[in-house]
C-alpha cells in the first residue's frame, strides 16, 4: 500500500498509539505530514502530536550517538586531516596576498590607463550615438526639404510618399524631441495644404471643362453628322450599283470598280480633353485616405453643373439656343463617360446612368414644351435633326436615347401638319398666280430644270428648242414643293443616318395626304371658283394629268429613293399612291369644267341660229355663218387639246362638243320660237352638218383618237341630227313609219321630237306665186308624203 494511503489509514483509525509510528515513517520518508498535523489539531490533541514529535527527536538523537560511537576513530582522523588542510590554506592565502600586493604595485599605472580607456570608450560611445542621431536628424531634415521642394513644384504625390516614409520609418525614431514634435505637428498641416491645393486645381478644372463641354459636344456631333452623310452617300452608291446589277448594265463592272477604288476609311477625330486634374485629385485624395470624400465632392459638383446646363435660356428663342444647349449636354456626358472609363472608380455606372436618366427626363420635357410652341416646320426639322444627331452621338457612348427618339416620334404628326400648312400656302399661291399657259423652254438647262428633273418628259431624247411643254409653269413649281416635302419628310423620319421602321410607308401616307388634301383640293378650288376661259381650263386639265402621271414616275420614286427602297419594290403592283385615283377623278372634274366652258362658248355661237331665215326662198349654196364660227372654234379647241391633253381627254372634250352642237341644232328645230321652216332651210342645215361631219371625221383620224379603241366615233354623236336632216330632205318621209326602215335609217330619232319638228315643216316657200315654180310636182309629192307622216305620227302619239 502506498505511503499516502497508509497515512490516511492511520489518521482515519485515530488511534493515539498508532500516530507515533506513522508520523515517524512519514518523516523518515520525507513525506508531507500536513494531514496528520491538521487532523491532530482538528481533533483537539496537539499535545499528543508534540509528545510524539519529542519522542521521535529523542530516538533520532539516540541513533546519532550510536552512529558517532560506531565511527569515532574515523571521525578523529577526518578532523586531523581537516586541520592540516586549514594550515595549508593559510599558507596559500599568505602567498596570494603577497602576490596580489606585488601585482597591485606593478599595475598601478596600468589601472589608470584602463580607467582612462574606459572613459574614452564612454566618450566614443556617446559620440557614436550623437553621430547616429545627427544622421537621423539630417536624413529627416532632408526629407522635409524634399517635401517643401516638391510642394513648391506642385508634385504632391511624391510629397505624400515622402511624408508616409517620414511618418512610418523615422518619426518615432527621431532622437531630438523638439524636432520630432515639430515634424509631428507639421505632417497634418502639410496634408491639409495638399488637399486644398488639389481641390483648387480640381475646381479650376470644373470651370474649364464646363466652358469646353459645348465645344466637345459640337465636335462630336459634327463627327456624327459627317459619318451620317458618308453613310448616306455610300448607301446611295450601293443602291445605284444594285439597280445597275438588276438592269444588267454593261457599265456595272466599271461602276463597282469605281465604288471600290474610291472607298476609303476615314477615322473620326479623337476628342481630346484633359482629365489629368481629375485623375490627380482622385489619386491624391485616395493616398490621403479620403477618396470617398472626393467621389462625393465630384459627383455633387458635376450635378450642380448639369442642373445649370439644363436651364433653357429665356434671352433668345429656342431655335437659336437649341444647338449650344444640346451640345453642352452632349459634352457633359462625353466627359462623364471618359471619367467613368479612365478614373479608376471615381464614378460608377449606376451614378452615370442615374444622372443620364435625370437629364434625359428634363431634356424630353423641354423638347416637348418647345415643340408645342413651334409653328414652322423647318424650325421643328432643324431642332429634330440636331436632337437625332445628339441621340446617335450619345448612343455611341452607351447612353439610352430611346426617350429622345420617342419624343421625336410624338412630334411627327405635328411636324407634317406644319409642313402641309406651308405647302398648302405655297401650292395655293402657285396655282393662283399661274397664267395657265404652256411653258416655252428656250435652253437645255431650262428643260433639265423643269422637265427632266421631275421625270416629266414625254420622250427620252432631248427635243429641239424652243420647246413648248404640255403643262404650265405651276407644274414644275408644284413638283418642287412636293419634292421638298418628300425630302423634309424623309429627313424627319431619318434618325442619325438610319430610318424608323416602315419609313417608306409613313412617307407614302403623308405624301398621299399632301396630294389629296392640299394639291387636289387646291386644284378643285381653282376649278370651281376660278374665273377663267377655255384655254386655262384645258391647261388645268393637262396639268392634272401630268400630276397624275408624276405620282408614279416621280413622287413615289423620289420617296423610295430617299428611303433606300429598291426601284423594283416601288414599281410593284398595288403599291402606288391613293392620290393617283383621286387626281384621276379630279381630271374628270376639270374636263367637265372645260367641256362646260366649251359648250357655253358654243351656245353663244349657236345662238346665231335664231337669225337664220328658216323660210328662205332659194336653197343656200354655202354654210351658215354660225357653222363657220363653230368650226373655227372647234378647230382651235381640238388643236390645242391635241397638243396638251391625253387622247382620252381629247376624245371626251371633242365628242362632248360635237354632241352639244348636234343637240343645239335639234333644239333649234324644237324651239317654240321656231314656228315653221321649209326644205331650203333644211338644205342649209344639211350643208352645215356636212361640214361638221367632215371636221369630225378628219379629226377622229388625224388626232390619233381612232387608235385608242373607243366604241363611239366623232360621227356617232351627230347621228341624231343627221338622221333628222335626212328625214326632212327625203322624198318619201312617210317611210319613217316603217319599223324596219326606221330602225335602219332613223334609229336615233325620237317619235315625239320628230312629230313636233314635222309639224313645223312647210314644204312650199313663203312667197307670192310660189305655186308657179317648176318644182311643183316634186314638192307636191314630198308634201303629200310629209302630210301622211304627220297624220301617222299624230295617230301614234
TrEMBL record:
Annotated Gene Ontology cellular component terms: cytosol; exocyst; membrane
UniProt-listed Pfam families: EXOC6_Sec15_N (PF20651), Sec15_C (PF04091)
Domain Exocyst complex component EXOC6/Sec15 N-terminal intervals: 52-220
Annotated transmembrane regions: none
Residue ranges annotated for the Exocyst complex subunit EXOC6/Sec15 C-terminal domain, each copy included: 403-760
Keyword check for S-adenosyl-L-methionine: no
Principal location listed in the UniProt entry: cytoplasm
This protein's record includes keyword NADP: no
Recorded superkingdom: Eukaryota
GO biological process: acceptance of pollen; Golgi to plasma membrane transport; intracellular protein transport; pollen germination; pollen tube growth; vesicle tethering involved in exocytosis
UniProt cross-references to Gene3D superfamilies, sorted A to Z: Dsl1p vesicle tethering complex, Tip20p subunit, domain D (1.20.58.670), Exocyst complex subunit Sec15 C-terminal domain, N-terminal subdomain (1.10.357.30)
Compartment annotation: Cytoplasm, Cytosol
Family statement: Belongs to the SEC15 family.
Protein name: Exocyst complex component
Organism, as annotated: Rhynchospora tenuis
Amino acid at each position: 500500500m502506498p505511503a499516502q494511503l497508509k497515512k490516511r489509514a492511520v489518521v482515519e483509525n485515530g488511534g493515539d498509539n498508532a500516530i507515533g509510528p506513522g508520523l515517524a515513517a512519514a518523516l523518515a520518508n520525507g513525506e508531507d505530514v500536513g494531514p496528520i498535523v491538521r487532523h491532530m489539531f482538528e481533533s483537539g490533541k496537539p499535545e499528543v502530536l508534540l509528545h510524539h514529535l519529542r519522542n521521535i527527536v529523542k530516538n533520532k538523537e539516540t541513533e546519532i550517538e550510536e552512529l558517532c560511537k560506531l565511527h569515532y576513530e574515523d571521525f578523529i582522523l577526518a578532523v586531523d586531516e581537516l586541520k592540516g588542510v586549514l594550515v595549508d590554506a593559510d599558507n596559500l592565502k599568505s602567498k596570494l596576498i603577497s602576490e596580489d600586493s606585488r601585482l597591485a604595485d606593478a599595475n598601478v599605472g596600468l589601472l589608470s590607463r584602463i580607467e582612462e580607456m574606459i572613459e574614452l570608450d564612454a566618450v566614443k560611445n556617446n559620440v557614436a550615438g550623437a553621430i547616429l542621431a545627427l544622421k537621423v536628424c539630417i536624413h529627416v531634415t532632408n526629407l522635409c526639404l524634399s517635401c517643401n521642394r516638391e510642394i513648391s513644384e506642385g508634385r504632391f504625390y511624391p510629397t505624400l510618399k515622402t511624408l508616409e516614409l517620414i511618418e512610418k520609418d523615422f518619426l518615432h525614431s527621431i532622437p531630438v524631441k523638439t524636432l520630432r514634435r515639430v515634424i509631428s505637428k507639421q505632417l497634418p498641416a502639410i496634408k491639409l495644404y495638399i488637399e486644398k491645393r488639389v481641390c483648387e486645381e480640381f475646381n479650376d478644372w470644373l470651370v474649364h471643362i464646363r466652358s469646353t463641354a459645348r465645344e466637345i459636344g459640337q465636335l462630336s456631333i459634327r463627327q456624327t453628322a459627317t459619318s451620317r452623310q458618308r453613310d448616306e452617300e455610300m448607301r446611295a452608291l450601293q443602291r445605284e450599283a444594285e439597280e445597275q446589277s438588276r438592269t444588267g448594265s454593261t457599265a456595272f463592272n466599271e461602276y463597282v470598280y469605281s465604288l471600290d477604288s474610291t472607298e476609303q476609311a476615314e477615322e473620326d477625330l479623337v476628342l481630346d480633353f484633359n482629365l489629368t486634374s481629375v485623375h490627380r485629385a482622385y489619386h491624391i485624395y485616395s493616398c490621403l485616405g479620403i477618396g470617398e470624400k472626393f467621389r462625393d465632392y465630384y459627383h455633387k459638383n458635376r450635378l450642380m453643373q448639369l442642373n445649370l446646363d439644363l436651364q433653357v435660356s429665356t434671352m433668345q428663342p429656342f431655335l437659336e439656343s437649341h444647338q449650344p444647349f444640346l451640345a453642352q449636354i452632349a459634352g457633359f456626358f462625353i466627359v462623364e463617360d471618359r471619367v467613368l472609363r479612365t478614373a479608376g472608380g471615381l464614378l460608377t455606372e449606376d451614378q452615370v446612368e442615374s444622372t443620364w436618366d435625370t437629364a434625359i427626363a428634363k431634356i424630353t420635357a423641354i423638347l416637348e414644351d418647345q415643340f408645342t410652341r413651334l409653328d414652322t416646320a423647318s424650325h421643328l426639322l432643324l431642332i429634330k435633326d440636331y436632337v437625332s444627331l445628339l441621340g446617335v452621338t450619345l448612343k455611341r457612348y452607351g447612353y439610352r436615347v430611346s426617350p429622345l427618339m420617342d419624343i421625336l416620334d410624338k412630334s411627327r404628326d405635328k411636324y407634317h401638319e406644319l409642313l402641309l400648312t406651308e405647302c398648302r400656302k405655297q401650292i395655293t399661291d402657285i396655282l393662283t398666280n399661274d397664267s395657265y399657259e404652256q411653258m416655252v423652254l428656250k435652253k437645255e438647262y431650262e428643260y433639265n430644270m423643269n422637265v427632266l428633273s421631275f421625270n416629266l418628259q414625254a420622250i427620252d431624247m432631248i427635243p429641239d428648242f424652243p420647246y413648248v411643254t404640255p403643262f404650265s409653269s405651276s407644274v414644275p413649281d408644284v413638283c418642287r414643293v412636293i419634292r421638298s416635302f418628300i425630302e423634309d419628310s424623309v429627313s424627319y423620319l431619318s434618325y442619325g443616318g438610319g430610318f424608323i421602321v416602315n419609313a417608306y410607308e409613313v412617307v407614302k401616307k403623308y405624301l398621299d395626304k399632301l396630294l389629296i388634301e392640299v394639291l387636289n383640293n387646291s386644284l378643285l378650288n381653282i376649278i370651281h371658283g376660278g374665273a377663267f376661259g377655255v384655254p386655262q381650263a384645258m391647261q388645268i386639265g393637262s396639268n392634272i394629268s401630268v400630276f397624275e402621271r408624276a405620282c408614279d414616275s416621280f413622287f413615289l420614286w423620289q420617296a423610295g429613293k430617299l428611303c433606300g427602297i429598291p426601284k423594283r419594290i416601288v414599281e410593284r403592283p398595288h403599291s402606288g399612291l391613293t392620290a393617283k385615283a383621286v387626281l384621276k377623278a379630279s381630271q374628270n372634274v376639270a374636263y367637265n369644267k372645260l367641256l362646260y366652258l366649251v359648250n357655253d362658248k358654243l351656245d353663244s355661237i349657236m345662238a346665231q341660229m335664231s337669225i337664220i331665215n328658216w323660210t328662205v326662198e332659194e336653197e343656200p349654196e354655202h354654210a351658215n355663218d354660225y357653222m363657220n364660227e363653230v368650226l373655227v372654234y372647234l378647230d382651235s379647241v381640238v388643236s390645242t387639246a391635241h397638243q396638251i391633253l391625253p387622247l382620252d381627254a381629247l376624245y371626251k372634250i371633242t365628242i362632248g362638243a360635237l354632241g352639244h352642237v348636234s343637240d343645239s341644232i335639234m333644239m333649234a328645230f324644237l324651239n317654240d320660237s321656231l314656228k315653221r321652216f321649209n326644205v331650203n332651210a333644211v338644205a342649209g342645215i344639211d350643208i352645215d352638218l356636212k361640214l361638221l361631219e367632215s371636221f369630225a371625221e378628219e379629226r377622229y383620224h388625224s388626232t390619233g383618237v381612232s387608235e385608242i379603241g373607243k366604241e363611239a366615233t366623232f360621227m356617232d354623236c351627230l347621228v341624231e341630227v343627221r338622221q333628222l336632216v335626212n328625214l326632212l330632205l327625203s322624198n318619201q318621209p312617210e317611210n319613217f313609219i316603217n319599223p324596219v326602215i326606221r330602225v335602219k335609217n332613223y334609229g336615233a330619232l325620237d317619235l315625239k321630237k320628230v312629230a313636233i319638228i314635222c309639224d313645223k315643216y312647210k314644204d312650199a316657200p313663203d312667197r307670192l306665186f310660189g305655186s308657179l315654180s317648176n318644182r311643183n310636182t316634186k314638192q307636191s309629192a314630198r308634201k303629200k308624203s310629209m302630210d301622211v307622216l304627220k297624220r301617222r305620227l299624230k295617230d301614234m302619239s
